[in-house]
Design brief:
Helices cover 39% and strands 22% of the residues. The protein is of the alpha/beta class and 135 residues long.
Length: 135
């Protein structure tokens, strides 16, 4: 049994009831795509509709990783929801641009920018205003 040279790490942060931030670290390829898909499916199962994918620490992504991103994009749109890629590493951004994925799936510089885009998505739950109690 060989150890992966660059194992995948996925940190899941629930930003709001319907929004989750997945911070991914490591290669997103045929060896790790199933693990990434498991995290996304778990969040869909728990009612998340908007996915912020922080890919800043992903040095490499192949077609397996792109297929997972596109699959969750399609599933989220049907809810309706959204997927946003955050700060992809230069090599990953190049692949996203060359394949046209970055035209379909919005790319943001930060989680805050992506969350602003989520709030502009039809059907999104608005962020509570500071200092105002929820009704």
């Amino acid at each position: 049994m060989s150890m992966a040279l660059n194992p995948l790490s996925v940190e899941v942060t629930v930003v709001r009831e319907d929004v989750t931030l997945l911070t991914v670290q490591g290669d997103l390829d045929a060896d790790t795509a199933t693990e990434f898909q498991h995290h996304l499916a778990n969040q869909l199962h728990h009612g998340r509709r908007h996915f912020l994918l922080d890919l800043a620490a992903v040095p490499f992504m192949d077609s397996s990783g792109m297929n997972i991103v596109l699959r969750v994009y399609q599933e989220a749109r049907e809810l309706p929801g959204s997927v946003h890629i955050i700060s992809p590493a230069p090599a990953v951004r190049r692949i996203l641009d060359l394949t046209g994925v970055s035209i379909t799936v919005p790319v943001s510089r930060s989680a805050e920018e992506a969350l602003e885009r989520v709030d502009g998505t039809p059907g999104a739950s608005p962020r509570p205003k500071p200092g105002r109690p929820k009704s």
